Amino acid sequence: MGSHRPEPEKNSTMELSRDMVREILVKLPTKDVARSRCVSRLWLSVVSDPFFRNLHAMASHVTSARTEALLVTERRVPGPNDEATVFNVSSGKAMCCVPIPSSYTIGNVCNGFLCFAHPDGPTAPVLVCNPVTGEAVMLPKAPPLVSSKVHLFALGFSPSTKEYKLFRLSTYPWSSSTSDQCVEVDVHTLGDTRGWRCRDSFTSPCRPANVSAPVSIDGKIYVLTLNWTHGTKHENPNRLLAIDVAAESCCTYHLPDYETWPYEDPTVGAFELNGRLCFVAHILNLIDTAITIHFWVMSPPPGNMDLEGHHRQPSWDLRYSFCTEHNYCFSTPWACWLEEDEMLCYMQYEILHLYGGTGEVTSSSNSGFLRWDKELQLPDAPLGSKCQFNIYGGYRPTLLSPLNFAVPPVQDDDDTNKHQFEHNMLRVLRHHR
């Protein structure tokens, strides 16, 4: 009796809704998109789609977003795995808790990824984690090294090629010679099934060192260095190693001039500060207990080479200078970051220093130096907790999954020999086919 309107096709309506949701979400910040997963099954489906996650991760408002700081704690627990917990410093919220292989520690931060590596395992596979999604992946093992060499892993990103690359720099720990020595470079492009590639080694007047974590900014990885003779003669670092991620090439930059008493543990560090490299130097002397702390910000050189074929040098802008009476211990935790683009936060050992531009200039005897607005004592870690922590700046949250970079495992000789009997047995059993 009477006509009725045909029902719209559900599939076409669903696809239209997916397109609308995708168009809305791709314009939002990463944190808002991550929270939107709870809205509905449709929104969860869109956010979980690898195509959307890759599209959002490369959006300009994501790649140019203000960098943030993370609190990363590592707890040594019984068993084959330890655990790393990640908190966002600004919000105070826990982001994820990730199992990491025993004795692994964080190497550096690159965009939205954390890179964990074994400090004494040059061939141990590196673990890459995304704290927004809680996903992690083990990268392929690096090739063997000469046993007496030391190594350093650093993760970098090339905006021009959209590729993440893991670098392993390896050297002898020291030399009695003051001449340039060899630095070996191995590279793995994340997701490349060819695995590790041995790049041409280069000679350098200094060796890369774990003075502070490598810093990844705008397609470059910056690593502080030590002189080759530092093992026998204490000298202050005076050069910075710069790695071009896209070209896979290395050069050295001069650090700003500073004079301080040479210590076995260097009294300088390099950090990310609002998208730029920051060099921090503690100026010590043996006459009084006063310590001055200088913060320089680097402007990269325009172009790589000058007309004579030499690498151009960066310029350094002295941004802050402080005078303090504290007796510093140069070990982790050690960090520097900007809170909300205004508050300078500097954590050294057990003190957090804060400066928001309101600190007074010190007395005329130290004219020109600033005073911190606040100096806060950090809480002690629980006794017997085997917990270590640090703050890492330069973090930009992303939805990009590290699982995109998983490659099929390569069967090594040990596994082949271990199961040789089974392989021989199967060869006989299948012979009749």
UniProtKB/TrEMBL annotation:
It comes from the Eukaryota. Pfam families: F-box, FBA_3. Residues 16-55 form the F-box domain. Signal peptide: none annotated. It comes from Lolium multiflorum. This is F-box domain-containing protein. InterPro entries: F-box-assoc_dom_typ3, F-box-assoc_interact_dom, F-box-like_dom_sf, F-box_dom, SCF_F-box_component.
